[in-house]
TrEMBL record:
It comes from Cupriavidus oxalaticus. This is D-amino acid dehydrogenase. It is an enzyme of class 1 (oxidoreductase). Residues 2-410 form the FAD dependent oxidoreductase domain. The gene is dadA. Belongs to the DadA oxidoreductase family. One of its GO terms (cellular component) is cytoplasm.
């Protein structure tokens, strides 16, 4: 089957990989000159399978006013005269209840664990047999650090529930926390406790995309994939109510099936077909701190619960990421937001952020395509020949391999490993 995939981020590239394994003739279209150049480029780096609870939770609405009043808030909201934003917000607020949040968490945990299994099998297959393969993948575990006693107590109460869903976690007091991660010694007296999840992993998402491209390139053992970088998608071709291909600046690319995996940029592409996925960009920021030899940087991944900032050791760097800004517009760097990341990193890990110009800390911003309830759209749309793999929010890297596997199984007519209805793309 001729399959055209729009988008070469981590979701598009993993989809290409899985479909190529099934023998499809796959073409990937991407406007950038290489894979993973947008939202996948410098994300948080944490493969956080046990922390997939949606942003729309039962306590979120009560926190929003306080967040909006803080200049260094983990969330910002800028209203615009766009009905799509208000529809998204209304649906988000409807999802902010315990029942919906718990149901969504269960579904995302199943997808996350499936994705973890798929990624680990992929790495085991290729890390030794393919020269040049690598993306600083490591199983480092994750510490979610609490400085508020009430918040830590609340997290501890969830441990049995998380365990019932398959999560391996334990509560640590401040001494055990610092013993596990000595880089936190500078804030020992501020720590109320931490939740430790040993199974969590890290990796460089951009390098993962590049490694996939290398494995799929012509001349490799994986045939049937054409990677067309530097190609601008202009629209989707239709005939008789069916999508028949993709129009590009280099001509039309015919297809039996088109998979749209272009993140937030997919919204205007799909609109002429009457497909309107409820996506809104959550703008996030990161810095990448070069680590000097002997730097007392964390080896375990760390999440600062109160400030919603994540820290991941990736090779000889520390990736620091956070923020969820519900704003319209592009990826312009807001110096104040990046400054918050720098200041929080210096406060948490004394002495590891060198006194460098900000540009040398590689400030970055990306637009994470989020659905209101946190569930991605995976599978066939309401339009024949059009499939979607969209809406993973901040969990694109974590959920990519599982999402690709789910889509590939459905396209092949196999029984999926998960309940496909949980991520029904016909919702769009």
């Amino acid at each position: 089957m001729r399959v055209v995939i729009v988008g070469a981020g981590v979701v598009g590239m993993t989809t290409a990989w899985r479909l190529a394994q099934d023998g499809h003739q796959v073409t990937v279209l991407e406007r950038h000159q290489g894979p993973g150049e947008e939202t996948s480029f410098a994300n948080g780096g944490q493969l956080s399978y046990s922390y997939v609870a949606p942003l729309a939770g039962p306590g979120v609405m009560g926190k929003v006013p306080g967040w909006l009043l803080r200049r260094d808030s983990p969330m910002r909201f800028r209203p615009v005269a766009d009905p799509a934003q208000w529809r998204w917000l209304a649906a988000f607020m409807r999802a902010c209840n315990a029942g919906t949040s718990e149901a969504t968490t269960r579904k995302l945990l199943r997808l996350g664990f499936y994705s973890r299994d798929q990624l680990q099998a992929f790495v085991a297959q290729h890390e030794h047999e393919d020269s040049g393969f690598g993306f600083d993948f490591a199983r480092r575990g994750k510490l979610v650090v609490h400085r508020d006693e009430a918040a830590f107590a609340s997290a501890c109460r969830l441990l049995d529930y998380q365990a019932s869903l398959g999560c391996e976690q334990q509560a640590l007091d401040r001494d055990a926390c610092v013993a596990l991660e000595p880089a936190l010694a500078g804030i020992r007296d501020e720590i109320a406790g931490a939740i430790y999840t040993p199974s969590e992993e890290v990796g460089d998402c951009h390098r993962f995309c590049v490694s996939l491209a290398r494995l799929l390139q012509p001349g490799s053992r994986r045939t049937g994939v054409s990677l067309r970088f530097g190609t601008v998608v202009q629209g989707l071709g239709q005939q008789g109510g069916r999508v028949t291909g993709v129009r590009t600046d280099a001509g039309e690319v015919p297809a039996d099936v088109v998979v749209v995996a272009g993140g937030i940029g997919s919204v205007p592409l799909l609109r002429p077909l009457g497909v309107r996925p409820m996506l809104w960009p959550l703008k996030g920021y990161s810095i990448t701190v070069p680590l000097a030899s002997g730097a007392r940087a964390p080896h375990v991944s760390v999440t600062d619960f109160a400030n919603k900032i994540v820290y991941a050791r990736i090779g000889n760097t520390l990736r620091v990421a956070g923020m969820a800004d519900l704003v319209r517009g592009g990826t312009r760097i807001d110096p104040e937001r990046v400054g918050t990341l720098v200041a929080q990193t210096r406060a948490l890990f004394d002495g590891i952020v060198p006194d460098l110009p900000l540009a040398q800390l590689q400030p970055w911003a990306g637009l994470r395509p989020a659905t209101p309830d946190g569930l991605p759209l995976i599978g066939p749309s309401r339009v024949s020949g059009l499939w979607l793999n969209l809406g993973h929010g901040a969990l694109g890297f974590t959920l990519a391999m599982g999402s690709a596997g789910l889509l590939a199984d459905r396209l092949a007519g196999r029984r999926p490993a998960l309940d496909a209805a949980d991520f029904d793309a016909a919702r769009a």
